[in-house]
């Protein structure tokens, strides 16, 4: 069990546990944002990675996942988006971006699940509705292609 040891005695960890250092995380997030503003994506990614080690705040994880995705590090981005999607109240943009990554990997059911999570809470979410149509059409198209191949055999 982790206690709230605000006295900073170091007793706030257990074997296999971790400590949260929100102040250090905030400093690193500020550093990451400054790097982003300067166009230093690699520096921003590094600072966000270190910030998450201190405190895995959803906003920080999302920003890191987004930058990783833009940098072509889709596997790392996917992992972070999945972690965000499994939280009690996942960020909508994380679910949308995860659905895009799943669609790119031809994982239609997973993409659809992400979009349904959004539409279950906000049925009028325009981007999710449009993207759902695209996912369902792609899924149907794949199914039709498989049926055509089966018929030709």
Notes on the protein architecture:
This protein is mainly α. It contains 7 helices and no strands. It has helices at 22-37, 41-54, 58-70, 74-85, 92-104, 108-121, 126-152. α2 runs antiparallel to α3, α4 (74-85) packs across α5 (92-104) and α5 (92-104) runs antiparallel to α6. It is elongated. Mean pLDDT is 85; it is low at 1-17.
> What would the principal axes of the Cα set say about the shape?
elongated
If helices are DSSP runs of H or I spanning 4 or more residues, what is the number of helices? 7
Q: What is the ordering of alpha helices and beta strands?
A: HHHHHHH
How far do the termini sit from each other?
Answer: 60 Å
Helix content: over 70%
The average pLDDT is 85
- Which structural class should the secondary elements be placed in? mainly alpha
Unreliable segments of 5+ consecutive residues: 1-17
Q: Over the alpha carbons, how many angstroms does the gyration radius reach? A: 20 Å
Beta-strand fraction estimate: under 5%
Give me the count of strands.
Answer: 0
Can you summarize the main beta sheet?
none
Give me the secondary-structure topology.
Layout: H1 22-37, H2 41-54, H3 58-70, H4 74-85, H5 92-104, H6 108-121, H7 126-152
What attributes does this structure have?
single chain; 153 residues; mainly alpha; disordered N terminus
